[in-house]
Amino acid sequence: MHTSLRQPLAALILILLCAAVLGAAAPALASTGGPAGGTGVDPVWTPLMRQLVADGFDARDIQRMFATPGLTYGPEFMGKKMRALYISKYAPAMPAPKAEVDPRRRKRSIYDAHIPPERLATVRYLYWENQEVLHRVEREYGVPREIILAFMVIETRVGDYLGEQKAFRSLASMAATRTYPAVASHLKQFQVTDPQRQWVEQRMNEKANWAYTQLKALIKYATANRMDPVRIPGSIYGAFGLCQFIPTSALERGKDGDGDGVVNLFVPADAIMSIGNFLRVVGWKPGLSRAGKLAVIKRYNQDDAYARMVLEIAARL
């Protein structure tokens, strides 16, 4: 080839090679703190993405997750939590009307709504469909099948209600929300003093740290069980599945009940085994008194009315 043609050709090849290298590196750069423009990722996620990559997650995987269409930042998750905590600590309690029923009975009615006759029929059908795994739970963990099914009635109405959020979005949003202005609109009806604002910001950081831990667990759980973490439906604070486990519980205490090699908490057999394992770990054992059973159930949910209703529903099954 003539010398005058070799030089332009060599230059063209070099340009193409550079373009290919830069194009391949772009997603990783974006997810580790590079410019987010043109990547489909809201810049509000950048600090969180950097932290995840620094903690060992693959940069390209993190980029793909946060570039998922429809994944929008929601400060309302932290805002609602801070409003509830602020009211609990600072808002004056309103005196109850004299004719009002015992607050514990009023609160219990929240759970009563989950057990109409048709739902009990669904539970009985679930029992017949999963007799083998329910027997395994009783044999291996010592947890009665009625207790397991009662949790599923309360948590998701036996699968009828799995949450209106995506667990990833709610946890990522909370983990990314650490400054008071992001939640100020949820507290505008109160005269928040400077010391109170400092307290709110302290609690925000505590909850953001908690959410970050749960987000990491969600990603690990989903990866281990061949799921897309961004698309897992859940509650406002990231609980998911028929048993509504938070991600750390799913990762640490989830069990494969149907033997397919994955822990899918939306599958009844897996949810049943996982509830049984959770209760065993936190202290359930045969022969517990009623008080002992209530104490163990409250490790699942701290609400007194919730614990009582688990036992009441179990007695009906």
Could you explain the architecture of this structure?
By secondary structure, the chain is mostly helical. The chain has one domain (41-92, 116-316). It has helices spanning 3-31, 46-54, 59-66, 76-90, 103-112, 117-129, 131-141, 145-156, 167-175, 194-224, 247-253, 268-281, 290-297, 304-316; strands spanning 165-166, 233-234. Strands 1-2 form a two-stranded antiparallel sheet. Helix 9 packs across helix 10 (194-224). It is globular. It starts with a helix and ends with a helix. Mean pLDDT is 85; it is low at 1-38 and 99-109.
Q: In terms of per-residue confidence, which ranges show pLDDT below 50 for 5 or more consecutive residues?
A: 1-38, 99-109
Rounded Rg: 25 Å
State mean pLDDT (0 to 100 scale): 85
Overall geometry comes to globular
Query: Tally of extended strands?
Result: 2
The spatial strand order of the largest sheet comes to 1-2
| Oligomerization category of the chains in this entry | single chain
**Total domain units:** 1
Main sheet properties: 2 strands, antiparallel
Q: What structural category characterises the helix and strand content?
A: mainly alpha
**Distance between the ends:** 87 Å
Q: Number of helical segments? A: 14
The proportion of residues in beta strands is under 5%
Helix/strand order: HHHHHHHHEHHEHHHH
Fraction of residues in helices? 55-70%
Write the layout of secondary structure elements.
Elements: H1 3-31, H2 46-54, H3 59-66, H4 76-90, H5 103-112, H6 117-129, H7 131-141, H8 145-156, E1 165-166, H9 167-175, H10 194-224, E2 233-234, H11 247-253, H12 268-281, H13 290-297, H14 304-316
Antiparallel strand pairs: 1-2
Helix pairs in contact: 1-3, 4-10, 5-14, 7-12, 8-14, 9-10, 10-11, 13-14
